[in-house]
Amino acid sequence: MSSATPIEKSVHASEWQGSLKIVDVARARNLAWLHVAEARIRNMLKWWTSIAAFSLGNPVLYLFSVGIGIGALVDANGGSTQLGGVNYLTFLAPALLASAAIQSFQEEMSFPIMEGFEWDKSFFAMNSTPINGRDIVNGLVASSFFKTAITVGIYEAVLLGFGAIDLNVALPMFLSALFAGVAFGSVMMAVTSYIKNDDGFFAIIGRFVIAPMIMFSGTYYPLESMPFYLQWVGWISPLWHGTDLGRVISYGSPQQGWIVISHWIYLATWLVVGLTLAYRQVSKRLAA
Amino acid sequence: MIIARGLTKTYGEFTAVDGIDFEVRKGEAFGLLGPNGAGKSTTMKMIASVSKRTGGELTILGLDPNKRGPEIRAHLGVVPQQDNLDRELKVHENLYVYGRFFGLGRKFLKAKVEELLEFAQLTEKRNAKAEELSGGMKRRLTIARGLVNEPEILMLDEPTTGLDPQARHILWDRLFRLKEQGVTLVITTHYMDEAEQLCDRLIVMDKGKIMAEGSPADLIKRYASKEVLEVRFGSSKNVEIAEQISHLGERLEVLPDRILVYSENGEADLQEILKLGLEPVTSLVRRSSLEDVFLRLTGRTLVE
Amino acid sequence: MSMIGLAADSAVLIAERRHNKLGRSVYSGRSRVALERNIMAFRSSNWIIVLSGFVEPIFYLLAFGFGIGKLIGGVTDGDGNPVSYAAFIAPALLATSAMNGAIYDSTWNVFFKMHFAKLYETMLATSLGPLDVAIGEIGWALLRGFVYALGFMAVMAPLGLIPSWWALLAIPGAVLIAFGFASFGMAITSYLKTFHQMNWINFFMLPMFLFSGTFYPLDIYPGWIQALIQAMPLWHAIELERAFMLGNLSWGLLGHVIYFLVMIVAGLFFTTRRLTALFMK
């Protein structure tokens, strides 16, 4: 108690003006989503070494082991006739890119949401300012997009280095992979926003949804080579739609026009449905 | 600043807040006192414009929170019951990021953050992660964070629960200063000493309703006597002995662990008890408090 | 005499008896209790997650073995015999399955129990010694690895991927592998301090899984990479299981077995030492 409250100098250096003077509500509202994204990105930056290591490590590992290793077996056995005439690595690259985007979004849309609602309740802190549920959703999508863009960018640079894609298709491929990512991510976000406690939920999603999606979406071999009764896994999976788009862009994989268009429509539907549900549930949960 | 008329909140069948009326005037410290589950936090959430009322009227700064939530929140400072700091951000970053949520400029915030760090006595901890702080420090940081927009109304939900006595006094001191600066305070608590210390006016809530309203001194005068004599005879004997001394004081309250005698002169009543040949295990004469008011109004103690 | 006095007396008696035994400071011969605790906790836990651990290798088997298998046709095993691609990778996935089961429990769960649940502190405050705790925990992880391997075998059999009776040896093989990884995994975990460091375990596991001759013979790599891979435990595990499953038995397999025995002993030794240092100062 000896060091009990000292007699202090005036605590406020400046004059207390009051929020009516200093807060510009219109400005706060317009940029609300950006401020949410800013907060989230600050948080990510704390882990940037791990993020960078994973972003670089993952593609290198998969390219060497699957692309080059299995690729050598496939190419030596004349597998390219089943791959539309390209070598295995070229066939694989768009799939790896799309799945990297989807996995990056999946990460951002799982634990960070639980954290905001349950663990550190930071969403409630945001919501006690002019920020709304909708702004939180938009901000998280924006920050995930930012992180995924970096991850996919690095992945693409590695693919270019391996000669798996051409430079002139790099940008459209980048965009189509990100689109698949954000489509999946917004639905994932809607789902997570309903979860009250983890209880192994994310482990189950990982093992029963994400893993089979990656394995059976025509990622490592053409969807058509799966038994017909299993091909529906690919049709519903945003990864397959993203991958197939990527293949058309990358090496002109022959595909009918209406299918290409339906890929876009399908992914756009995921995006819209996911966002709509997420807006609703996040707002509802904040008000509860 | 805040006007509530018949304010109601129901969750399905359950009525958390049941048609309450109150007004909070500019610059006063207004308290909501009551046990857990009385509806204090729900009322706070409605004032904080995050939870929508299901009935009655509520205006804050002249606006309807159901429609103008973000505009109202721009002028509130909220200190929730549980600290919801961003654990991975540093202390100063927590203040900065929160300020950004109000759309405040970087330059303004730079100065403001330093000012608030000093206010919360956290200048030396500015680079620590929020999760590394002690309970008292976290609380001070949460309060400082609530001040970043220089709010017209500062809302504090159980501000000192879980703090040690010294940390509580530091906090109270900080809150006094804010009041002096003209900030309106709305405080919930289930500590009567805190309510007595901080509040100009308060409402006592129980089961979603208002039981009484007034200044602390006012309420004590109205619902309790000047002094209280507390005697303990051991839990098995309290009821039996209470009958023998029921003539003492203005009123008697028998709790499981002790008997409370409300009277003008507690010391004299204690002498009476001793004269009867009864020997309490412990005895205490004290000034009556809001706790007694609450006991009178609801038949229950505050902290159960 | 009061009940309390009686209990205290018998506790002293037990302590005195233990006092004269070799290794008394680390082992009380009651690791069964620690294992029992895990089984009790398991019953009330989300068992879908625990059992789901073995589906991942099965997905790999189906996707790679059959999907990519179609593109590849067949490969030749270590002895130069042609086998289908699925039959080639199945034993590798079996070994991985045993590893995953063992590692998950002996790393993340152990880390959680050490740092958050403070379970070991509680256990070691009783008459249990650190070796009891280590064996109990590792025994549990091993059990899980064994169950995963068994589940995987049950899926392989109807797919026609178990060509000979020798393949039954793959089950004790899987137990050995799980034991080795569990013991080693717990030893490493007991030295780690933050979740962040725990991530490095994953960082090590993924490349080991991808490169240990899991999906194709090692000979596509240059010699020095081959040597590096052959130093890794999973490579030994895969070689052992592949030989059992494909019926290519030889005395050379003893090398892999010894590798795992060393891993088990070293893991137990370091875990015990670390737990003693941490909680019994």
UniProtKB/TrEMBL annotation, chain A:
The keyword Membrane applies. It is found in: Membrane. It is a multi-pass membrane protein. InterPro entries: ABC2_TM, ABC2_TM_bact-type, ABC_2_transport, Nod_factor_ABC_transporter. The chain crosses the membrane at residues 47-74, 86-105, 144-165, 171-194, 201-223, 258-279. One of its GO terms (molecular function) is ABC-type transporter activity. The keyword DNA damage does not apply. GO terms for cellular component: ATP-binding cassette (ABC) transporter complex. Residues 50-285 form the ABC transmembrane type-2 domain. Keywords: Membrane, Transmembrane, Transmembrane helix. PANTHER family: NODULATION PROTEIN J. This is Unannotated protein. It comes from freshwater metagenome.
From TrEMBL, chain B:
Transmembrane segments: none annotated. One of its GO terms (molecular function) is ATP binding. It is found in: Cell membrane. SMART domains: AAA. InterPro entries: AAA+_ATPase, ABC_transporter-like_ATP-bd, ABC_transporter-like_CS, ABC_transporter_ATP-binding, P-loop_NTPase. GO terms for cellular component: plasma membrane. Residues 2-232 form the ABC transporter domain. Its main location: membrane. Keywords: ATP-binding, Cell membrane, Membrane, Nucleotide-binding, Translocase, Transport. Belongs to the ABC transporter superfamily. This is Unannotated protein. It comes from freshwater metagenome.
UniProtKB/TrEMBL annotation, chain C:
Residues 48-275 form the ABC transmembrane type-2 domain. The chain crosses the membrane at residues 47-72, 84-104, 141-159, 165-188, 200-218, 249-271. InterPro entries: ABC2_TM, ABC2_TM_bact-type, ABC_2_transport, Nod_factor_ABC_transporter. GO terms for cellular component: ATP-binding cassette (ABC) transporter complex. Keywords: Membrane, Transmembrane, Transmembrane helix. Pfam families: ABC2_membrane. It is found in: Membrane. The keyword Membrane applies. It is a multi-pass membrane protein. The keyword Cell cycle does not apply. GO terms for molecular function: ABC-type transporter activity. PANTHER family: NODULATION PROTEIN J. This is Unannotated protein.
